[in-house]
Write a structure and sequence with these properties.
Layout lengths: L8 H16 L12 E3 L16 E3 L2 E3 L3 E3 L7 H17 L3 E2 L4 H5 L5 H4 L9 E6 L14 H11 L3 E6 L1 H6 L10 H9 L4 E5 L6 H9 L4 E3 L8 H12 L2 H9 L7 H7 L6 E4 L5 H10 L3 E4 L4 H6 L1 H21 L5 H5 L3 E3 L1 H7 L3
Parallel strand pairs: 4-11, 5-6, 6-7, 7-8, 8-9, 9-10, 10-11
Antiparallel strand pairs: 1-12, 2-3
Helix pairs in contact: 1-9, 2-14, 9-10, 11-16, 12-14
């Protein structure tokens, strides 16, 4: 999962707290914007359910479904088991998978196994992960560059590096990195050497930012919009536990900050593949994301509890999501992912209000 990382046991403690809070507390945004979208029913689909194909391509890689297991964790003991369960499922289902922020393992080689375990599995695309704030020199902390990016890639035998944009979390986190001047140039420098996907972590990406990221050379964008896990909420719970009432208040104030995921998908169409992470709960939400123009739907909060349980629990959830997605395709007369992308989608509610103003 995203966030700043210090050296030593404090890093492991914080990462463990993040997973515990996401699993056991209500940290979701108060409004799920996927409910604003409606696919149009076709009473005469003229196709057989069993003939539906959900195979597609993402960045030139053939994947079995338009789904990505988004980066969630790493850097503490339990994370190895979580990532192993996710990786086994990603291999079985043949869909891409990312890991959480790898700064912890760059600073402490003893933590690398909590990430590198995913390299043991035949996953069509492994996605490494570093934070954009770490590409900027922070107070008392050096900036990462291409060398560290390669370390992250090689750690999991990745084909893509997610540079996560988590400035909302940084601004409410007690340990947050709050320098951001020059971050676009820093991303561009990495992108000249390594294939990069820019990835927001819950606050969304608008059209202007998407264009700047495209011009910086990123290969894809994960919009990571508002509607799912609120990292401001997560940090609010952490601050409450630490007795830091100022940070708790800040996290609560910004609990619902951001650009909704469906709006981000509509705004971020700048000619790059898009991943719709943020509030995806089921296969119907995933189908809506594809209908809006996403290349794939990103799954994070929908899988974290299952990943902490077992590989089989992750598999069951993904299988259900795929069945739900195929049902949406059948009921809209879509035999392929490409046909689903061409179907009309009605947008109402707060999402429609957003789109009328941006």
């Amino acid at each position: 999962m995203p966030g700043s990382d210090d050296k030593g046991s404090s890093t492991e403690k914080r990462k463990g707290e993040h997973v515990d809070i996401v699993i056991n507390r209500n940290v979701r945004a108060e409004y799920n914007y996927w409910d604003d979208l409606t696919l149009i029913h076709d009473p005469l689909p003229e196709l057989d359910f069993d003939s539906i194909s959900i195979e597609t391509k993402f960045l030139g890689r053939k994947i079995a479904a338009p789904l990505v297991i988004s980066g969630m964790t790493g850097g503490f003991g339990k994370a190895e088991e979580i990532n192993r369960n996710l990786a086994a499922a990603a291999s079985e289902m043949q869909i891409p998978m990312g890991v959480g922020s790898q700064r912890a393992a760059i600073e402490d080689a003893g933590l690398r196994k909590t990430y590198s375990v995913v390299a043991d599995y035949d996953i069509p695309l492994r996605i490494a992960n570093l934070g954009a704030p770490q590409l900027i020199e922070q107070t008392g902390r050096r900036a990462y560059g291409v060398e560290e990016a390669w370390v992250a890639m090689e750690m999991i035998d990745a084909g893509l590096l997610a540079v996560h944009l988590n400035y909302l979390q940084e601004v409410v986190q007690p340990e947050g990195d709050r320098r951001a001047s020059g971050v676009t140039d820093a991303i561009a420098a990495i992108s000249r050497e390594i294939p990069v996907m820019a990835k927001e972590t819950g606050a969304g990406i608008g059209g202007g930012a998407a264009a700047r990221l495209r011009d910086a050379g990123v290969r894809a964008i994960d919009v990571g919009g508002l509607g799912g896990t609120s990292w401001s909420a997560v940090e609010s719970y952490r601050s409450k536990g630490d007795g830091d009432w100022k940070r708790k208040r800040l996290g609560t104030t910004y609990w619902n900050w951001g650009i909704p995921t469906p709006v981000s998908i509509m705004q971020a169409k700048v000619g790059l593949p898009l991943v719709a992470t943020g509030g995806i709960r089921n296969g119907l939400d995933a189908a809506k994301a594809v209908c809006l123009g996403a290349s794939a739907a990103g799954l994070a909060g929908a899988l974290i509890k299952q990943a902490a349980e077992s590989r089989d629990a992750v598999m069951r959830e993904i299988e259900i999501i795929i069945e739900e997605m195929k049902a949406a395709m059948f009921l809209t007369g879509s035999s392929t992912v490409g046909e689903l992308a061409g179907r009309e989608c009605i947008i109402s509610g707060q999402s429609r209000e957003w789109l009328s103003r941006v």
